C-alpha cells in the first residue's frame, strides 16, 4: 500500500474503484490523444485497412491531431523553412564546431520528419531500423526538415548499413538535388525498441566516424515501444566528443532513464563519450495539410486499440527486468552491503517501478473510460458468453470483465487515498 496525493476515479462499482497518482494524470492526456506509434503505424503496412474518413469525424480528427501536437510541443516556426545557400556554404567552410566540442546545443525537428521517423521505427517492431535526415545548420542548432529510411538489415540489438544502403543513399540524394531540394544530409537516426535513447558502443563508433568525415553530423535515437507506452515521443539527439577529449567530471546524462539490465554495461562504458542535445519540434502553416494527409484515418485506431494489449510483450520485459534488478539489490543487502551504490541501485529500481505502475494504471483507466463511453446502458451478465456473428467465443474469463459504468458515475476529487496493487 502506498499513500499519495491523487485524483480518485469512482465508478460506483465494487470492482471498478481506482485511485491513481498525479503522475498518471500527466500521462493520461498524452495517452488519450492519438500517439504517433499507436495512431499511425498499426495498419501502415496493411493497405486494405485504409478506409475513407467519414465527413462527420473531421472535427474529431483535427482535435486528435492538435492534442498530439500539444503533447509533443510542436510549435509553429515558418522561419525554419528559409534556406540561405550562401550562409550554409560559409558556415561549412568556417567549421566552428571544430573549435568547441559543445558547439551544437539543440536540434529542431519538423513535425513531418518526426512522424516519418517514428512510423518507420514502429514498423520495425522489435528490430532496429535506420535512416538519414536532411536539413541544415542554424547557429548552434540543427534544423531537420525531412528524413528517409534506408534498406538495412537490423536485429534486436544492432543495425548496420551495407553496400545496398549506400547505393540507395547516393541515388536518393542525387534525385533530391535534381528536384531542387537544397537541404543536405546532416545526420542519421535509428531505433532502440524498448531500451531507451542512448548510444551503444557501435553507435558511438559510427557517429564518431561520420563526425570526422561528414560534419556537421548528428545522431538521433527513437524508442517506438516506449513512445506507445508513454503516449509521448521518446527521442534523443547526440554528438560524440573528439578523440582524446575529456569531458568535465560533473557531466553526465541530464536526467535518469531506465536502462535494461542487459544493456547497463554497454551504456556505462560509453556514456562519457558523447553528450545529448535539446530536442524541439516545429511546423509551418503549410505543414498542416501534410500532417492531415499523414494523419489520415489512423487516429481512429486509438479508440479500438489498447496500450495494455499492444505493449504486452514490452510490459512483460519491463517487469522481468525490474525483478532481476531487485534480486541483485536483495543479494547485496543480505550480505550487509549498505553502501551508497546499493542505495542508488535500489532508488533507480523504485523509479522504474513507479514508471511501470503509472503506465499500467493509465492503460487501465483508459479502458474504464472507453467502456463507460461506448458501453453506456449495457448490462453485465457474468454467465453470458461473448459472441461474434452468433458464434460463441470459448475460453472467456467473465470474472475479469469489469462492469460498465455510466459517464455520470465518474467523478474526480483531490484527497489522500490508498492505492492497492491487486494481484
Supply the key terms:
single chain, 423 residues, alpha/beta, Cytidine Deaminase, domain 2, 2 domains, seven-stranded mixed β-barrel, three-stranded antiparallel β-sheet, 14 helices, 41% helix, disordered N terminus, MPN, metal ion binding, JAMM_MPN+_peptidase_M67A, Proteasome regulatory particle subunit RPN11
Written account of the structure:
Residues 43-62 are annotated as: Disordered. The chain has 423 residues and is of the alpha/beta class. The protein has two domains: 2-32 and 306-419, no CATH class; 80-284, 3-Layer(aba) Sandwich (Cytidine Deaminase, domain 2), CATH 3.40.140. The chain is 41% helix and 20% strand. The chain contains 14 helices and 15 strands. Strands 4-6-5-9-10-11-12 form a seven-stranded mixed barrel. Helix 1 packs across helix 14 (340-374) and helix 13 (312-334) packs antiparallel against helix 14. 30% of the residues are buried. Residues 1-25, 27-57 and 386-423 have low confidence and may be disordered.
Amino acid at each position: 500500500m502506498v499513500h499519495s496525493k491523487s485524483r480518485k476515479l469512482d465508478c460506483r462499482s465494487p470492482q471498478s474503484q481506482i485511485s491513481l497518482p498525479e503522475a498518471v494524470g500527466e500521462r493520461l492526456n498524452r495517452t488519450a490523444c492519438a500517439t504517433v506509434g499507436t495512431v499511425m503505424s498499426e495498419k501502415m503496412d496493411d493497405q486494405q485497412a485504409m478506409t475513407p474518413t467519414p465527413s462527420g469525424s473531421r472535427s474529431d480528427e483535427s482535435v486528435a491531431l492538435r492534442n498530439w501536437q500539444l503533447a509533443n510541443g510542436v510549435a509553429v516556426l515558418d522561419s525554419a523553412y528559409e534556406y540561405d545557400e550562401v550562409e550554409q556554404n560559409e558556415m561549412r567552410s568556417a567549421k566552428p564546431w571544430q573549435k568547441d566540442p559543445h558547439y551544437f546545443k539543440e536540434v529542431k525537428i519538423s513535425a513531418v520528419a518526426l512522424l516519418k521517423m517514428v512510423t518507420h521505427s514502429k514498423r520495425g517492431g522489435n528490430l532496429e531500423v535506420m535512416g538519414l535526415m536532411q536539413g541544415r545548420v542554424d547557429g548552434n542548432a540543427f534544423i531537420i526538415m525531412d528524413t528517409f529510411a534506408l534498406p538495412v538489415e537490423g536485429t534486436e540489438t544492432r543495425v548496420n548499413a551495407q553496400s545496398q544502403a549506400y547505393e540507395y543513399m547516393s541515388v536518393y540524394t542525387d534525385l533530391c538535388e535534381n528536384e531542387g531540394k537544397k537541404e543536405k544530409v546532416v545526420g542519421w537516426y535509428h531505433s532502440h525498441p524498448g531500451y531507451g535513447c542512448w548510444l551503444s558502443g557501435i553507435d558511438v563508433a559510427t557517429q564518431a566516424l561520420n563526425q570526422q568525415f561528414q560534419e556537421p553530423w548528428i545522431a538521433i535515437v527513437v524508442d517506438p515501444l516506449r513512445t506507445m507506452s508513454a503516449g509521448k515521443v521518446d527521442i534523443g539527439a547526440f554528438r560524440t566528443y573528439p578523440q582524446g577529449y575529456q569531458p568535465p567530471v560533473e557531466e553526465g546524462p541530464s536526467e535518469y532513464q531506465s536502462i535494461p539490465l542487459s544493456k547497463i554495461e554497454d551504456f556505462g562504458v560509453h556514456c562519457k563519450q558523447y553528450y545529448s542535445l535539446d530536442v524541439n519540434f516545429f511546423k509551418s502553416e503549410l505543414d498542416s495539410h501534410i500532417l492531415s494527409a499523414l494523419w489520415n484515418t489512423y487516429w481512429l485506431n486509438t479508440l479500438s486499440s489498447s496500450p495494455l494489449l499492444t505493449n504486452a510483450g514490452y510490459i512483460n520485459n519491463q517487469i522481468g527486468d525490474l525483478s532481476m534488478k531487485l534480486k541483485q539489490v536483495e543479494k547485496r543487502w543480505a550480505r550487509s552491503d549498505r553502501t551508497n551504490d546499493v542505495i542508488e541501485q535500489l532508488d533507480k529500481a523504485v523509479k522504474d517501478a513507479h514508471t511501470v505502475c503509472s503506465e499500467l494504471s493509465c492503460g487501465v483507466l483508459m479502458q474504464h473510460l472507453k467502456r463507460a463511453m461506448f458501453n453506456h446502458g449495457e448490462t453485465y451478465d457474468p454467465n453470458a458468453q461473448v459472441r461474434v456473428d452468433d458464434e460463441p467465443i470459448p475460453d472467456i474469463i467473465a470474472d475479469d470483465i469489469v462492469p460498465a459504468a455510466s459517464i455520470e458515475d465518474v467523478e474526480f476529487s483531490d484527497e489522500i487515498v490508498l492505492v492497492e496493487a491487486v494481484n
